[in-house]
Write a structure and sequence with these properties.
50% helix, mainly alpha, Heterokaryon incompatibility
């Protein structure tokens, strides 16, 4: 898999939060995914990488408990991907 972290800039157009976290588990419509993410996902698929971890989608942004759980895993996630 690939892990992707990014600078949001001034707006957050595609994030996971409490109100949409269950919907996110079912999938995100392609047209709702930002072009930058689409490009990255297409590249991953061309490289035959089927799984990716995008922090703003994986971590529930307005849930401090989820943030703490996922933040604790981030060093391992990024360390593993940087070794590949």
């Amino acid at each position: 898999y690939v892990a992707l972290s990014h600078c949001w800039g001034s707006s957050q157009i595609c994030v996971t939060n409490r109100s949409n976290s269950e919907l996110r588990k079912a999938g995100i419509p392609w047209e709702m995914i930002p072009k930058t993410f689409q490009d990255a996902i297409q590249l991953f698929l061309q490289l035959d990488i089927r799984y990716n971890w995008i922090d703003s989608l994986r971590i529930i942004q307005d849930d401090i408990e989820d943030w703490n759980i996922e933040f604790a895993k981030m060093a391992d996630i990024y360390q593993l991907t940087s070794l590949v």
